[in-house]
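Hi P.,

Sorry for the delay on this. The queue was packed all week, but I finally got your sequence through. Input first:
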Amino acid sequence: MSSLDPHAFLHGLFQAALSAVRAEERAPVFLSKIEKPKGKTIVVGAGKAAASMAKAVEDHFGDIDSGLVVTRYKHGLPLKKIEVVEAGHPMPDDSGQRAAARILELAGTAGPDDLLLCLISGGGSALLSLPAQGLTMADMQAVTKGLLLSGANIGEINCVRKHISAIAGGRLARAAKGARIVSLLISDVPGDDVSVIASGPTVADPTTFADALAVLKKHNVSMPPAIEKHLTEAREESVKPGDPCLARAETIMIATPQDALDAAAAYAKAHGVTPLILGNAIEGEARDVALVMAGMARQVVGFDQPLPAPCVLISGGETTVTVKGKGKGGRNCEFLLNLAIATDGHPRIHAIACDTDGIDGTEDNAGAILHPDTLAKGLAKGAKAKDYAARNDSYSFFEFCDSLVITEPTRTNVNDFRAVYIKE
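Then the structure:
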């Protein structure tokens, strides 16, 4: 397979992964199985895939009485019956707060004969941002910023979010007052934990106020006084397993990280490259994960283990970055820059790392791509990879090397996609 173009192959893997988890592809088969209600159909939702999921509902579900979903800025779509609001992510903002309040109010209009159809995907925690009583958006923003910089994993971050929110942690289901609730989910979290995806607005939450307080203390996140008071007093817990408000609630997973990895593996096989899926729920510091992946790639090169080349090591999940510098870049570019340093331009190792939502961190790229000459290209322009890595400036490095992957918003989200390709 020496004629295989590594650049085109890696991009093809990523596109195959994306195609497998788009709402327009996944939702119709599940929507066709949902029984229509005697009363109204009310559609609400939040997440980076909310607009595409809502469009699938409009196209395939039929009559809709009212609807409102909130998605990230520039992720919206023009729809006929379901209103789409755009808001801030990963930092919550006033637009998300207003949308969340309206969604909570809309859920409260549902009666016993009605269906509340909830469209939930990754990013919903920040987008569905309604501070708990006594808290402000400024409080929520301060804690969110601290958590994002701390290296806390998504489960820990969303544990806190559920306990400073008036809508997360099952509280949206509580507002529906016994109506039938069907939630369609696109998972972006390790293990596909429904209580973590978008901070679980329609499902039970096993975590507590004490857990949330412990997360903030563990990661030394500074708390506004109102947040600390709220978590310490623990007056209104999230919805727990067995709560009557969940008696008529059903949760359906329509797309997962594993679906994306399986599609990429099938693409690799079709091109004569043996795939090895390392896991769909890999967590940890991006730079540490990069060192492990580099070690595996070198093992293939040197010993044909755990499989011979040509092969591709595929993985998903959500790494973290403990930010120490003042550079730009998300966890995928952070991973790839450290992989580049660890593999040191090896002529047989190529890689891609991208976020499936099309946005890596807060920049305009989905991620980046790595070839054996990437480090040399950077050095030729005066960019030393180790210097950029030290200040968490991975975006700038790959921008210098013209190696960013830019897709525009994909309107889906099953988290990170990584592929390390080892040539013959």
